[in-house]
Design goal:
Helix content: 25-40%
Number of strands: 7
Strand content: 15-25%
Distance between the termini: 32 Å
Length: 213
């Protein structure tokens, strides 16, 4: 049986929110996208007060990706990783990934953030699989439309089950780990024998807290 070490990404592996970092990266590179900034801010606010669902807010927040060719986006994602994403990773998170990988764990990253740029986290050689919210690519061009569901909460469990079934992996959940900064990942926390909250102010639901820097 395989033992898993599952990691959320935003505020678990990273010090900052990756969609915001990606937006700033794109607006610096292409000042024309500054015109989209008010829409991104409004979508985030409407989500915060409960008017938008998470998926709708995400589609509108990242609306500036609409029309970018797939090959161009791959190059942009590589540049984003090199210039911003790789600079905001917690050292303690990377050390934990390396330690658990050396102990034979399968390293899985599951995030609600966009998979098209999170795929650059395969640059961390210990990572076995990355799952994020998937966006439509039609006729070789990126669209802001989400494919399926926003990868959050119970959807993360569903995506994990799809992956393990496809790969024929039998999981030893009792000896597996889950790391996240948020109780929105409670469905995954409940699956494993070793759940950890990252940088929480106090223990919640009897989940031990780790402070990463």
């Amino acid at each position: 049986m395989d033992k898993l070490a599952i990691f959320d990404v935003d505020y678990t592996l990273t010090k900052r929110e990756t969609a915001m970092e990606f937006m700033f990266f794109m607006m610096k590179k292409y000042p024309k996208f500054l015109l989209h900034f008010p829409k991104s801010v409004i979508s985030a606010l409407l989500y915060a007060i409960g008017i938008y669902k998470a998926g709708t807010a995400k589609e509108k927040f990242l609306g500036f990706i609409d029309g970018i060719e797939e090959e161009r986006m791959k190059k942009l994602a590589k540049e984003f990783y090199a210039k911003r994403l790789s600079k905001i990773l917690y050292k303690d998170a990377i050390d934990t990934i390396r330690k658990l990988k050396s102990e034979g764990y399968r390293i899985i990253l599951i995030s609600a953030s966009a998979e098209f740029y999170l795929n650059e986290l395969y640059n961390i050689k210990e990572v076995d699989y990355v799952m994020g919210t998937r966006f439509e690519i039609k006729d070789g061009v990126h669209r802001r439309k989400i494919i399926g569901e926003n990868c959050k909460g119970e959807e993360k469990v569903k995506r994990l089950e799809e992956y393990t079934k496809k790969e024929g992996i039998e999981v030893d959940f009792k000896n597996s780990y889950m790391f996240s900064d948020s109780l929105s990942d409670l469905p995954l926390f409940k699956l494993v024998g070793h759940p950890y909250l990252i940088n929480a102010r106090k223990k919640k639901d009897n989940i031990e807290v780790l402070n990463w820097k």
